[in-house]
Design brief:
It contains 15 helices and twelve strands. The chain is of the alpha/beta class. Strands 6-5-7-8-9 form a five-stranded parallel β-sheet, with helices on both faces. The chain has a three-stranded mixed β-sheet with strand order 10-11-12. Strands 1-4 form a two-stranded antiparallel sheet.
Length: 424
C-alpha cells in the first residue's frame, strides 16, 4: 500500500514532484521483514527495501544477492540460438565472409567487438581462411539499417550478416538483404514489433512465439552476444566444458558485457547483476589495449565501480559517435597496435572534451528557450525547443537535463532549414 503526500516543490521554480511513500508494514509484514533480516543478517532498513521490491523470502533474496557464474542461464534457452550457431559454423567450414554490424553506442560497439574478437580467435585456432568484417553505423546517418548502412553492407557482399543491437524491426531492409543473397542473423533486445524479420535466426530474450520462454528478458545486446559467444565456444569445443582458450576469452568478455549493461542502464537484477559484478572485475584486469587506455585516460584505478563505467568510461566511447566517428571507438577496441591505440584513445579524449563543452552550450541555450516559453505560457505541459546550431549527438543528453529541471516532457530538435527537416 502507498499514500500520496502533498506536492513538494523544489527550489527550482518550475519543478514539482509527488512522492508515494510506503506505509509502515502491517503486523504480519513486520514479522516477515524481521525474519528476512535475521536470515540474511542485514539491517531492518535493508530487509524492508528488499521486501518492498518483491524479495520476500530467503530463497529469492539469496538469488538476488548471489553473483555466481553458474546462475547464468544456458544459452541454448534463447530462441534461434542453435540456428545462429549452425550458420556461423557453416561460415567457418565453407570459408565464407561474415560481416558483423552493430550500433554506435557502447552496447552496440561492445557487442560488435566481442563477437569479432571471438571469431578472430576461432580463425587462428582452426587455421581457417573465412573472412571477418565489422561495421557500425554513424549517428548522423541514423540508427540500424539506414540507407547508408544498407548501401555499405551490399557493397561488401558478405555471405552472412550478423546484426547486433539492431534489426528486430528492420523487416524491409532484411528482406532486401535476403533477396541479394545475404543471410541474416539478428541479436537484438529492442521492443518487438508485430512480426519478426525473415532472418535465419532472431535471438531476442522476450520472444514468446513458438514456445519461446527465456527466463530473463532484460539482457542488453552485449549480454546476448556473450550468450552467443558462449554457445559458439561450446559448439567448437564439442563439450559443455569449453576449451582453455575459450574459457579465458569468456572470462575476459565479461568486461564488455558488464560495461555495456551499465552503459545501457539495464536493470541490475537477475543475470545483469552477475554480468556486471564479474564485468567490473574483468575490466580491472582486462587484456584489451583499448579498454586499458580508456581506464588510464579516465584516471581510474582498481577496484572499478559502476559509477566509473557509467560516468567515465562509457561517455568517452559514446563521444566518438557524438562528436567524431563511431568507427573510431570500434577500432580502438579491436586493434592491438599500441601506436594506433594511443592515437585513437587521444582522439576519444578530445571528443569527450568537445562533447562536454557542446553540452554546456546547448544546455544554456535550451534553458533560456524553456524559460521564455514558460514565461509566455506557464501552464504548458511540454517543451519543444529547437536550433539550427545544435549537435544531433548531444541533444538527447541535454533534453534529459531540461526534463529534470523543468519537470515536463521535452523535445530538442536540430533544424535544417535547407533540407526542411528537424531531428531530435
Amino acid at each position: 500500500m502507498a499514500v500520496t503526500v502533498p506536492t513538494i516543490t523544489t527550489r527550482r521554480k518550475y519543478t514539482s514532484h509527488r512522492w508515494d511513500v510506503a506505509l509502515a508494514p502491517r503486523d504480519n509484514e513486520k514479522t516477515l521483514i524481521d525474519d528476512l533480516a535475521t536470515k540474511l543478517r542485514v539491517s531492518d532498513v535493508c530487509a524492508r527495501i528488499l521486501y518492498r521490491r518483491g524479495y520476500r523470502n530467503a530463497e529469492s533474496t539469496n538469488f538476488f544477492f548471489s553473483r555466481k557464474m553458474d546462475l547464468l542461464h544456458d544459452p541454448q534457452l534463447l530462441p534461434d540460438i542453435s540456428k545462429a550457431v549452425a550458420r556461423i559454423a557453416e561460415v567457418v567450414e565453407k570459408q565464407q565472409k561474415v560481416l558483423i554490424f552493430g550500433d554506435y553506442d557502447v552496447d552496440g560497439i561492445a557487442a560488435t567487438v566481442m563477437l569479432t574478437r571471438f571469431l578472430r580467435l576461432l580463425q587462428r585456432q582452426r587455421n581457417s581462411q573465412f573472412e571477418i568484417d565489422a561495421l557500425v553505423p554513424e549517428r548522423k546517418h541514423g540508427y540500424g539499417l539506414n540507407t547508408e548502412a544498407l548501401r555499405n553492407i551490399l557493397q561488401r557482399k558478405p555471405d552472412l550478416l550478423i546484426l547486433l543491437d539492431n534489426g528486430v524491426n528492420s523487416q524491409i531492409a532484411v528482406a532486401q538483404l535476403t533477396e541479394a543473397g545475404i543471410d541474416c542473423v539478428i541479436v537484438d533486445h529492442h521492443q518487438l514489433g508485430e512480426a519478426l524479420p525473415n532472418a535465419v535466426a532472431v535471438i531476442h530474450p522476450k520472444r514468446k512465439d513458438n514456445g519461446c520462454q527465456y527466463p530473463f528478458g532484460d539482457l542488453c545486446a552485449a549480454g546476448l552476444t556473450f550468450k552467443l559467444v558462449w554457445a559458439l565456444a561450446v559448439h567448437f569445443s564439442q563439450n559443455k566444458k569449453v576449451s582453455t582458450d575459450f574459457k579465458a576469452f569468456l572470462l575476459d568478455a565479461f568486461a564488455l558485457a558488464g560495461a555495456a549493461t551499465l552503459a545501457d542502464v539495464a536493470p541490475l537484477i537477475g543475470e545483469n547483476r552477475i554480468l556486471t559484478h564479474h564485468g567490473l572485475s574483468a575490466l580491472a584486469r582486462t587484456r584489451s589495449p583499448g579498454l586499458r587506455a580508456l581506464i588510464v585516460n579516465s584516471q581510474l584505478s582498481s577496484p572499478l565501480s559502476a559509477t566509473d563505467v557509467t560516468f567515465r568510461i562509457a561517455p568517452r566511447l559514446n563521444a566518438a559517435g557524438r562528436c567524431g566517428q563511431a568507427a573510431e571507438a570500434l577500432e580502438l577496441l579491436l586493434t592491438d597496435d599500441p601506436d594506433r591505440v594511443a592515437t585513437l584513445a587521444a582522439l576519444l579524449e578530445g571528443y569527450n572534451t568537445t562533447r562536454q563543452n557542446l553540452e554546456r552550450k546547448i544546455l544554456q541555450e535550451a534553458r533560456q528557450q524553456a524559460l521564455l516559453a514558460l514565461k509566455e505560457a506557464p501552464d504548458r505541459r511540454s517543451l519543444v525547443l529547437d536550433s539550427t546550431d545544435w549537435n544531433i549527438g548531444i541533444v538527447g543528453i541535454v533534453a534529459s537535463r531540461i526534463v529534470e529541471e523543468f519537470g515536463r516532457p521535452t523535445l530538442l530538435l536540430c533544424s535544417d532549414k535547407e533540407k526542411g527537416i528537424a531531428q531530435g
